[in-house]
Amino acid sequence: MTSPAAVPRRSRRPEWAGRNYVLLTASAIVTNLGTHGALIAAAFAVLESGGDGGDVGLVAAARTLPLVLFLLIGGAIADRLPRHRVMVAANALNCVSQAAFAFLVLTGDPQLWQMMLLTALCGAGQAFFNPAAEGMLLSSVSGEQANRAFALFRMAMHGAAIGGAALGGALIAAVGPGWVLAVDAAAFAFAGALRAFLDVSHIRPREPGGGMLSDLREGWREVVGRPWLWSIVAQFSVVVAVVGAAEAVYGPLVAEDELGGAAPWGLALAAFGVGTLGGALMMMRWKPRRLLLAGTLCVFPLALPSAALAVPLPVAGLAAVMFVSGVAIEVFGVSWMTALHQEIPEEKFSRVSAYDWFGSVAMLPLATAVAGPVEGVVGRGTALWGCAALVVLVTAAVLFVPDVRNLTRRTREVAKADAAALAVSADAEGATGRLG
After folding, report:
1. Can you give the pTM of this predicted structure?
2. Which one of 51, 87, 162, 257 has the fewest beta carbons within 10 angstroms of its own beta carbon?
């Protein structure tokens, strides 16, 4: 008779959900619970200290400017050093900066320059964290189930954002923004502790190269050599800028003036989170054959929230629009990550991710900084309609790139065919060499 101890336990986790994947998912849940409330809290901390829309934009720009400046360096470092150490160090910086921000808000009258400085430190931490985290996630899954793994990760991440945004809005209304910022600092500390246990032994040690500039040039060649990659990064430099200005600056102002304050805006952002959750759940089953075509078509609905704020729609209508845009962007997000995982070599994940992030957020500091002055010149409604129009125009333009329309998901059968073709090519080259 076989003893119970001799019977191997069957893991409840799917094969593709290894230890690193579980740790990355758990830590992302923790940080999203804190961060999505803190983003709302920062805007209302500025307003409660006597600031206006222009000041909200300046604080938002202070967060994104160092993100832009240090992203490429962060990507190069993450492809040289163990990625989990870069992530933990960045989380530590975020924890300290958010704790100091919370202390200022809770104990006194924070000055604009102080809030800008602390959010800038938080943005610098994110510049090093984002490429390392994306490279770590891309290297933690393999095979045809990558689409499902990325969808589940994003579903968990955005599920936390639902609670974070809704709870953040409610807590701001109940106890003020300072405590929400303090919760975010604690979340960074706990998530950093989890990420310290990530295992990087499966990643090959990097060969000594020609220095950071050489690494950056190599990553740049990887980007510009792929039209689908650089064209979508260029598209999102505009999309992220205008959507960011609408949500970081105009959204809180519309909520304050037209919708009743922080709680309704938190509800609208939570509806977006519910949409991303639904979109990720859908992408766990749906595997579009033309990855980027399906994803790019789903960028068009990102124009809807700006239009809804321009009207403005009542809270229920705004929440419905945010839900639809959440579903749509998740289709793009999972398709994009699957394309990067499929097409980019592992040793270049973080550098390519850095160029992706850099291009996507490069215009965001300018957009958030000028959002207030633009509102003063043309009016809030006109500015929001302009945001919606730009999303539609640049998304339509990127569909003219053939690789965006034609990039195909690589199934096991396609991979075998590619390997066979490479083998035949290598044999032919060898024969040619011998004849020569």
Report:
1. 0.72
2. 257
H or E segment to which residue 354 belongs = helix 349-361
- Best CA proximity match to 371, nearest among 264, 243, 259, 256: 243
Closest CA to 248 of 74, 386, 47: 47
Per-residue tokens: 436: 């020569």
Which tens digits make up the pLDDT trace of 353-393? 888 888 887 787 788 778 888 888 888 888 899 999 999 99
Nearest to 268 by CA among 311, 324, 329, 316: 316
- Kindly tell me the burial class for residue 171, based on how many C-beta atoms sit within 10 Å of its own C-beta (0-12, 13-18, 19 or more): buried
Contact between 19 and 149 under an 8 Å Cβ cutoff? The reply is no
Mean pLDDT, rounded, of the chain? 80
**What's the pLDDT tens digit per position in 14-43?**
666 677 888 888 888 888 888 878 887 888
* The two structure tokens encoding residue 187: 């979340």
Three-class DSSP category at 143: helix
Residues 77-98, buried b or exposed e (16+ Cβ, 10 A)?
Answer: bbbbebbbbbbbbbbebbbbbb
